[in-house]
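can u do me a favor
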């Protein structure tokens, strides 16, 4: 499989209490959060924050910057049972020196810890990617089909990537079209339920205790020929 993402460094930032050493080494270590980043499919990645033990973390903030892009930022709801502090982010153009920052927040709204990872995106090799994690994906954004320029998926986020059966996963997407055509969105999954499956921002409810494949399509011709498509696997845990 061709290399599509390069991890360049990891940085762990501790909260002020841990940095001053006031609580001793064991307390400092308990507050360390590590951010792991892995390639998924050409213009996307999966990021996960290792949550500190002994604290109730309801939300994790994430922010992706670098390479001249507009900041991609949001929140991951980790309050549900079995939820992980994980997110799939798509739509990043090829480039170097991207940075993702993830911050865990306690139930009281205090910052627990913050982790940062730097990475490069190498981009898709062509309209399709044969790697196993790119199942169902199709890169038609900006392609010419006759007189039409296909709409492009410019951003997509799915978070968290694991939650308990019956709980919700936030899904959002944005798209653009060089010709100014109306851009339509369509969410699909192997099972489960989307609250608004033709909206740019919606929520997915896990039905079965198993792995699900969520797919988002962006089109400017009513999904007839021009379809820019990405897929990501999520898990609905018992």
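np, heres the sequence
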């Amino acid at each position: 499989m061709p290399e599509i993402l390069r991890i360049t460094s990891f940085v762990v930032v501790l909260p002020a209490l841990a940095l001053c050493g006031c609580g001793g080494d064991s307390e400092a270590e308990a507050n360390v959060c590590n951010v792991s980043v892995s390639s998924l499919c050409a213009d996307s990645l999966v990021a996960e924050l290792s949550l500190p033990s002994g604290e109730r973390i309801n939300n994790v903030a994430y922010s992706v910057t670098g390479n001249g892009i507009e900041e991609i930022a949001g929140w991951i709801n980790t309050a549900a049972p079995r939820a992980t502090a994980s997110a799939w982010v798509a739509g990043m153009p090829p480039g170097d020196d991207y940075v993702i920052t993830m911050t865990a927040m306690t139930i009281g709204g205090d910052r627990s810890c913050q982790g940062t990872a730097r990475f490069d995106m190498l981009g898709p090799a062509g309209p399709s990617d044969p790697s196993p994690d790119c199942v169902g994906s199709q890169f038609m954004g900006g392609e010419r089909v006759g007189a039409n320029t296909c709409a492009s998926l410019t951003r997509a986020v799915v978070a968290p990537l694991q939650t308990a059966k019956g709980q919700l996963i936030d899904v959002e997407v944005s798209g653009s079209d060089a010709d100014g055509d109306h851009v339509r969105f369509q969410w699909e999954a192997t099972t489960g339920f989307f609250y608004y499956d033709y909206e740019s921002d919606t929520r997915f409810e896990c039905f079965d205790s198993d792995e699900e494949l969520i797919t988002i399509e962006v089109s400017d011709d009513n999904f007839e020929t021009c379809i820019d498509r990405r897929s990501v696997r999520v898990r609905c845990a018992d």
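Residues 110 and 202 are 28 Å apart (CA to CA). hope that helps!!
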